[in-house]
Each structure stands twice: as structure tokens, then as C-alpha cells.
Input
Amino acid sequence: MSSPLPYDGPALHRFAQEAVDAGVEWLAAEGAGTAWSRRRFKLSGEEVTDADVEVERRVTRVLADRTPEIPVVGEESADMGPVPDTCWLLDPIDGTMNFTRGAPGHAVSLACVMDGTPVLGVVHAPALARRWSTGAGSTEAAGLPVTGSRTLSGAVVGLTGTGSGRRRPARLIGRLYEVAHRIRLQGAMSLDLVGVAEGWLDACVCLDPSPWDVAAGVALVRERGGAVLGAGGRAFTLHSPVLAAGAEPVARELIALWESLDS
Output
């Protein structure tokens, strides 16, 4: 267990909201301009923009001021080392490919992780003017508990992390077309998890999720009573190569389906 921190839950929520505000307000005022949203490519092949970097800088600056004892791990500045057990996890623009094309499916995603577990999450979709957060300090009334389909045959399933030209994800898409009610590929893991929490989706699968992609959404789904499972059908951890969320029976079906496919 990590040493106790000098902040209670409401204070951490307040700091998280302030930090996300700093990023979102800048993004609304300046970040959507052509110069900021021009895409380039990381070595991984993922898209990135100067807006990603600037939002991360502004959010991080607030968190470093309010909670200097808690490190901030952001997608655009993280090294390849392990994520600390206690930290802030930030994806400054989840769904950058959507952002660069003017599509609304992108979000600022911030989570607080304690002892390896996401305990607080804030997801803000600027183009939709909507924010979702866990617990105290939420800017929206809590939604109904996760009550989506409990069978894969009746489920609308979100799928992210498929990339292109990869055989195993392609086989998963084909199998889901055969056995799920519908599938949706929307391009932002944080918003797929929000979709499960809000009921837009019955379940979702995230392939090769980076911790900052999913931590906030994991906290939100769990708070609303949904299951978030990882490899082997065990409770999801930030080191798992796959995530399935929804009612527990359908989440288990999804993990089993993924693991039945050849790599």
C-alpha cells in the first residue's frame, strides 16, 4: 500500500475537474485551429497533433500545482517504464484521428489511480459539450446502473484498438458480426467505456489498451456496477492486453471469444 495522501476524495475530484477545465477551455479557444490540429505520426504509427501536447501540458500544470506528490503520466510524455501504482493518468485527446478530421468522437480523459486501481475518472468530449465523472464533483447526475444485455447475442458492442491489417482483430470483427446483435467501431476507448456506463452500448472490447486510454472509463463503469474484465476473465488491471466491459456475463463471453481466436 502507498502512503496516505493529504487529500480526500472531494478534493481530488475538484482538482481533476479544474485540470480538465484548463485543457478543454484552451482547446475550445485555440486548439481546434488548423495549425494545432495538423496531424503527424509517432513511431508507433498513431496520429498526434500539437493540440495533444498542449492540452497535456496545461492539464499537467494544474495537477502538479494542486497535487505535487502525485506524478502525472500523460500519453504524450510517458516513457516506456511501468506506470506508478499511484498517479494521474491522462490522455489529452483520446481519439486523435477523429479530432484531426473534425469528427466529434474525441475526449480528454483523466483518471486518478491508487495502488494500481483507477478510483476517479473524468471524461470530457469537447465537441459534444458533455462531461462524465465519477463520484463527488460530477457535473452530471449519475446515470442508471449498468443494465445492458447479459448475452452477447443481444448486445450492441463497441470495439476499439483494431488497427489495420491485423489478422486476429479482423477475425474478432467477423465473429462479432456473426454472434453479437450489432457492433460499433467509434475510435475512442474512453467514449466506448462511457457508452457502457450510459447505456449507449451494452458492452465494449478494447484491444491493447494503454492505461491512459481506459483508466477513467474503467472507474466510471465500475462505479455504476458494471464488470470490467481483462485477460483470463479476471478483473481488469492496467497491465492487461485486453479489456471487456458490460454486464459480467457478456463481458466474460467477449473475453472468451477473443481468447479463442488464434494470434
